[in-house]
Amino acid sequence: MFVTDSPRPSPLPGPPCRHQALLTLPAQEAHVSAARHFAADLLETWSVPATERDSAVLIVDELAANAARYGREHMTLSLALDHGTLHIVVTDSGTTVRRRHGDLAPDEHGRGTGIVQYLAQSTEIHQTRTGREVRACLRCSA
């Protein structure tokens, strides 16, 4: 596991961030709770209000669960808080997700990205050379 928390410039495009942190874990479902707890504790330290923190932690949980399910080796969570916007980025080493239809009950799987899109002000999904990157932005009054 690799963790950083610093007020240094973000790897995200744009001006320097007020806060940023990075966590890299094996892409395994057993590590999703570690990503969720890391985000919750960090956002509390950054004084993100509880309701916004809860939304952000739910976004992290859903994105980390997807990364653990579809990633092959590792997943990385990046959090950056700047000028009232929390940038949540989860990358993994997986390939394009193949959607399966008809073999799973709708209440069992598939709600994660819908939850993220509902809570976040914006979302983006990119396939990269080494895997997949999902970005979500959430307004925060911290």
Distance between the termini: 27 Å
Q: Radius of gyration in whole Å, from Cα?
A: 15 Å
**Count of helical segments?**
3
Relative helix content: 25-40%
Mean pLDDT: 82
Low-confidence stretches: 99-110
Please give the number of β-strands: 6
Task: Summarize the main sheet.
Answer: 6 strands, antiparallel
Question: What report would you give on this structure?
Answer:
The protein is an alpha+beta fold and 142 residues long. Helix content is 30%, strand content 31%. It has 3 helices and 6 strands. The chain has helices at residues 32-45, 50-70, 112-119, and strands at residues 2-6, 19-26, 74-82, 85-92, 122-127, 132-139. It has a 6-stranded antiparallel β-sheet, covered by helices on one side. Helix 1 (32-45) runs antiparallel to helix 2 and helix 2 packs antiparallel against helix 3. The two termini are 27 Å apart.
What is the strand and helix layout of this fold?
Blueprint: E1 2-6, E2 19-26, H1 32-45, H2 50-70, E3 74-82, E4 85-92, H3 112-119, E5 122-127, E6 132-139
Helix pairs in contact: 1-2, 2-3
What descriptive keywords fit this protein?
single chain; 142 residues; alpha+beta; 6-stranded antiparallel β-sheet; 31% strand; globular
